[in-house]
Write a structure and sequence with these properties.
The structure is a single chain. The protein has one domain. It is built from four helices and 17 strands. It has helices at 2-6, 41-54, 67-71, 99-113; strands at residues 7-11, 19-23, 27-35, 58-59, 64-66, 82-87, 90-95, 116-119, 146-148, 155-162, 165-172, 179-189, 193-197, 206-210, 215-224, 233-241, 246-250. Strands 3-11-10-4 form a four-stranded antiparallel β-sheet. Strand 10 and strand 11 form a beta hairpin. Helix 2 crosses helix 4.
Amino acid sequence: MRYFKVLILILLVAGAGAAVWLPAREHVLGSYMTSLHNRTAGQRINAERAARAVDGAVIAPGQTFSFNKTVGSWTPDRGYVLAPVSYDGEMVVDWGGGVCQTSSTLYNAALIAGLEVTQRHRHNWAPQYVPPGRDAAVAQYTTDLCLRNPYDHPVRLRAVIREKSIAFEVLGNMTGPVAAVECLPGVTVPPIAVMKSDASLAAGQRRIITRGQPGVRVAVYRTYLQGPRAGQRELVSRDAYPALNQVIAVGGR
């Protein structure tokens, strides 16, 4: 009887539909939180909706989790709304703006939990909600975040949604954090100011369209704190983000 108190049986409906054993008492292998403070209402709605779609997902030993397959399309019929997204260096409005904050939050929790990252893409320009090098861009049908469970036991993903933040916890049968993550920034490139004529503005009047931000090169490393790889340090990624130019609308000629 004691054995059956240690384990509970959960039947996975997705995938092959095989039975997966989960620990009766789960522990946090890794967690990460990002702030929703300066995000628009639409971005918050989309980020939270995507987080709820991921919440409760179980990754069996050796199985690979796909963010896009789990979340599905972020379209209006599924409750997603129009919100700002970065496109070619400028903010535009599109369906699902804000979903990348969810994937980036999950990515960081997965790194700390020791999960294997089999697919991850940086943004064209570094977002503000995570440090450079620790973002994970997603796009429907083309750009995904994929995580593999390297353990001999299942792990479960839990979303923690609060008024001004979202977080993910990776749960398993040992106490975390499994790993520590560090970013080593390299050379930074300052942005330049680009003037853009705007007939709607009075002569001499200016309006900032894009505030701009420096470009940066960054290397991300992961050091394992426990488990079979304890003490090992690995290079996770090297990313180079170009400077985002400051765009200023100027009235008159």
